[in-house]
Structures are given as structure tokens and as C-alpha cells.
Amino acid sequence: xxxDSLLVxxxxxxxxxxxxxxxxxxxxxxxxxxxxxxxxxxRKLYWYSWNVPGPLALPVIGSAYMFLTLPVTDALQVVHNIxxxxxxxxxxxxxxxxxxxxxxxxxIEKILKSPNxxxxxxLFYLAFKDIFRESLITAEVHTWxxxxxxxxxxxxxxxxxxxxxxxxxxxxVFADQLKxxxxxxxxxxxxxxxxxxxxxxxxxxxxxxxxxxxxxGDLGLVLEKIFDLAMIRTLKIWYKIGFxxxxxxxxxxxxxxxxxxxxxxxxxxDDDDFLTH
Length: 277
Fold this sequence. Notes:
Radius of gyration: 26 Å
Number of strands: 2
Shape: globular
Number of domains: 3
């Protein structure tokens, strides 16, 4: 009986090992098939970008490894280093997305004159769609062109001239805020400038003086936090997957700050689905 029991266990374990091996082989084949399919879909991009210089691109993640372990505040330095190494143009594979860093004025002129220059890339506009929804900032080209023509008369020179007094007024408030910080070693100049910009936008576009620079500083802090979290989603490629972003700590903070933003601006939304992308 004892030997028969051992034999049964051996057979059972052998079957389990066989199932595991088969599942592993199937998973590997599926991953390889998916990767080859992705390469085939992107074949034109690989062909046209073959002779364009750029940093080393690894399989699957491309050049995203350069940003994976860095805080968001250091990402700009990485981009700056790339511009110094490739002074005219550089290709950067960010996962399966091909990006071009263009610094030569001749190339930039050609791009800006292209009819496709207003197209939005899903990689970098993914998180910002949660903030701005379907606005001109995130709208598709056909929508952007249609609505941009409708609001163009609002930006004529006469109307812009009428805003000069507001620019001056808010700039003086900004200068006063800087004077209060004379002698301090570390000044959050970005936050102060953001508050000034928000005051100007609210007063010119909506006709409401929110006094953000002097009283309601929460809006500037919330916006700064939201944009920092949006950049985290942009730079960390695994956060492109919606449910991973929604369950992550940055994703939860992003949603909380969106609620604060909408409550401050008076645009509170009952829709709970902020993170559906």
C-alpha cells in the first residue's frame, strides 16, 4: 500500500509539472506572438526612424528605462541630457510609442506647418483628459479646429488690450508676494507664478477675481499636485493600464485632488469614474 501511494503521488506530481510546463510554454508563445504582432504594426515607424539617432531602446519598454527609477523632478534633466547628446533631432521609443525630440529650427518649422501638427498623442494626453475632459487642450483635430474657429474672435487685439489693466494689477500682487519673501533661501517661485497665472485667467476669462495669490492658495497647491501626478502616469509606462493606475497610490491621490479641484472651482462632478482611461 505504501509503495502504491508513492507511485500515485509521483504520477500526480509528474502531471502537475507537465501542466505547468505546458502553461509556461503557452504563455511564452503568446508573449512572443504579441510582441511580433506589435513589431509588425509598427514596421513603418521602425523603417523610417532607422537612421535617426537616439538613446538605446530595449525590447518592450524602449527607452523608458531612463525614467523608471527617477522622480518626476529629474525627468526634465534626462530630456536636457538627450538634447545635448543629439542637438538636432532624436528618436525616443517610449514603450511601443515612438517620440521625436526636435531642436533644429528647420525641422520645427516643417512640423508646425504640417496639417497634422494639432494631433494629440494618447501617451501624454492620457492623464490630462481626466483633468480637462473633452476641451480644446485634449480634443481631436477635427473638434479642435471647429471650436478654435468659434472662439477666435474672442482673442482679437481690442479685447486683449482691455485685459492689460488686469495683467498689471495681478503682476503688482505677484511682486508684493515676492517682496514678502526677500531674504528667504528657498522660494517656491513656480507655485507663486502659478497662482498669479490662475488669478489672471479667472479674472480675464471668467470675470471672477478669486484672490488666489493672497487668500485661496489651495487651488495652486492642488493644481501643482495634479500635474505632478499626471506626469508620473505619463513617465511610468505600467500606469498606462487603467486598473493599475486606479488601484495605485498615485492614482488614488490623483482622484482625491481632482475632487478638490472641482469643488474649489465650483465644477463638482457627480461622476465617480475619473480614471476610466
